[in-house]
Write a structure and sequence with these properties.
The chain has 172 residues and is mainly α. The chain has one domain (2-157). 76% of the residues lie in helices and 0% in strands. The protein is rod-shaped and about 135 Å long.
Length: 172
């Protein structure tokens, strides 16, 4: 009996061993499945991050493009504004010339318009330059320092809304 009991224990051990082996294989397979799922999740996350990086790069390029467009629009608006400022300055200069044609002196024009005599002379130069066609957009006499050094050019340029502070000038 001892031989047969040993054989049955061996058969029992084999059955137990097979059951344990099956549990181990099942556990290993479950671990592999979990590792594969984790790897697939990592790959999905990595792919999503790559897509987001592409979206970021495209958005950054759009920012640059939009900034360039805005700069171009600002340049165009500035050029139009400078042309309008020049036209307004020339109109004011023509008023000064018209006052001179009526017989008003440089000092008298300055007093009536509330500007210095140097500013009146500058406006006359602007009118002459405009008549000669030598004027450039933005004001022919603007910032050239062609005055007698009293700073009238700078003061006139600081008033883009007009050259006559506190007075309305009409040009017919």
């Amino acid at each position: 009996m001892s031989g047969s009991s040993r054989k049955s224990r061996t058969n029992g051990d084999v059955a137990r061993r097979r059951a344990v082996l099956e549990r181990v294989r099942s556990r290993v397979a479950e671990e592999r499945r979990q590792v594969e799922e984790a790897e697939a999740a990592r790959r999905r996350r990595e792919s999503e991050l790559e897509e987001l990086a592409v979206d970021f790069e495209l958005a950054t390029q759009d920012v640059g493009r939009v900034a360039e467009e805005i700069e171009e629009q600002v340049r165009r608006v500035r050029a139009r504004g400078e042309a309008q400022l020049r036209a307004a300055r020339v109109r004011a200069a023509r008023v000064v010339v018209a006052m001179g044609a009526v017989g008003e002196t440089v000092a008298g024009c300055g007093r009536r318009l509330g500007v210095s005599a140097e500013r009146v002379k500058e406006l006359r130069r602007l009118a002459r330059e405009d008549d000669a066609g030598d004027g450039e957009p933005g004001g022919a006499g603007a910032g050239r320092g062609g005055g007698d050094g009293d700073g009238a050019e700078t003061a006139g340029e600081a008033r883009p809304s007009g050259l006559v502070p506190g007075a309305a000038v009409r040009v017919g």
